[in-house]
C-alpha cells in the first residue's frame, strides 16, 4: 500500500466530479437530467455520490424532455425542496416556454447546469445554429447565466455551481450554469 505525503497537495478533481460536488453542495434535493453523452460524466458522478448505478439513484433520475424536467424539478420549491436539472444547452430550445411561463413567472428557484455545445472542439456543425445564441436567449427571458470553461479549474467549477444554487434560492429564480465540458478532461465528453 503506497503512503501519502501530506505535504503534497492532492490532484485536482475531474471537472465532472467537481460539478457533481457543486450540485450537492448547493443543496439539491433531487436531480433530473435529460440523457446525453455530453453530460454522462456528470450524471455518473452524481449517481455514484448518491449510491446508485445504471444512471439512477434515490435522488438522481432521467427525464425524457427538457420541459418535463423544468416542470418536475421546478415544482419542488412548492414543497419546500430544491431541484437541479442537468442538460445540454441545445435543450433550452425545447424548454424556453416552460422556463418563461412557469419557473421564471412563478419565481421558483431551480439550478440548471447545461453543457455548452458549439464551442472549441465541437464536431457537430449543425449544433452551432442554436447553441451560439443560447446565452443571449436566456438573458432575453431574464434568466441569470454563469459560464464556465477550461480556463478555470475544477475547484472553481465546484464553487460556481454551488454559488449559482445559492443565488437561485436567494433570488427565488432559476439560474443557469453553462459549462463547456468539451476537452476539459482530455476527452470529448
Unreliable stretches covering 5 or more consecutive residues: none
Largest beta sheet: strand ordering: 2-1-3-4-6-5
Strand content: 15-25%
Q: What's the gyration radius in Å?
A: 16 Å
Instruction: Write down the overall geometry.
Output: globular
User: How many helix segments?
Assistant: 7
The overall average pLDDT, rounded, is 88
Helix content: 25-40%
Structural class: alpha/beta
Task: Give an account of the 3D structure.
By secondary structure, the chain is of the alpha/beta class. Helices cover 38% and strands 16% of the residues. It has 7 helices and 6 strands. It has helices spanning 15-25, 40-49, 66-74, 92-103, 128-131, 134-140, 154-171, and strands at residues 30-33, 60-62, 83-88, 110-115, 144-148, 174-179. Strands 2-1-3-4-6-5 form a 6-stranded parallel sheet, with helices on both faces. β1, α2 (40-49) and β2 form a beta-alpha-beta unit. The longest helix is centred in the C-terminal third of the chain and has 18 residues, at 154-171.
Amino acid at each position: 500500500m503506497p503512503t501519502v505525503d501530506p505535504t503534497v497537495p492532492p490532484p485536482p478533481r475531474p471537472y465532472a466530479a467537481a460539478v457533481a460536488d457543486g450540485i450537492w453542495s448547493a443543496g439539491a434535493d433531487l436531480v433530473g437530467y435529460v440523457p446525453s453523452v455530453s453530460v454522462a460524466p456528470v450524471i455518473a458522478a452524481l449517481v455514484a455520490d448518491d449510491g446508485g448505478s445504471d444512471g439512477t439513484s434515490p435522488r438522481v433520475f432521467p427525464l425524457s424532455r427538457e420541459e418535463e424536467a423544468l416542470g418536475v424539478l421546478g415544482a419542488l420549491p412548492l414543497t419546500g425542496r430544491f431541484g437541479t436539472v442537468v442538460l445540454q444547452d441545445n435543450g433550452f430550445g425545447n424548454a424556453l416556454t416552460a422556463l418563461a411561463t412557469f419557473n421564471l413567472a412563478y419565481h421558483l428557484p431551480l439550478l440548471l447546469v447545461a453543457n455548452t455545445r458549439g464551442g472549441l472542439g465541437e464536431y457537430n456543425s449543425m449544433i452551432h445554429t442554436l447553441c451560439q445564441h443560447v446565452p443571449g436567449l436566456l438573458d432575453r427571458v431574464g434568466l441569470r447565466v454563469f459560464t464556465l470553461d477550461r480556463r478555470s479549474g475544477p475547484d472553481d467549477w465546484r464553487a460556481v455551481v454551488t454559488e449559482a444554487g445559492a443565488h437561485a434560492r436567494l433570488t427565488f429564480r432559476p439560474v443557469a450554469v453553462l459549462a463547456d465540458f468539451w476537452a476539459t478532461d482530455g476527452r470529448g465528453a
